[in-house]
Amino acid sequence: MPFEAAVLKEHGVTFVVVMVQKHIIDRKVLAGQTRRKLKRLFRRLPVVLVAQDEDGVPMFIGRQDLVRFMRKVDLKDVPWKLYSIEQPDE
Asked: What angle (nearest 5°) sits at the alpha carbon of residue 40, between those of residues 8 and 64?
């Protein structure tokens, strides 16, 4: 399963921003589960999820200090990379 993410550093804090679908942000339980899984993948770095609404306005879920920082960042300037998680066959 491919996804876009970026590892950033701000005020000495290294964290990861992950682009997700809006329905993940809309459902708090699903957002929490997603953040926990990604935190394990990214070696326990704090995780901020970002999705865009219909108008392209970003919405964030994560640590409040990191969310406040990300609200000031143009998502076009984020150094996104494509990552992949292997999904086990069900």
From this structure: 50
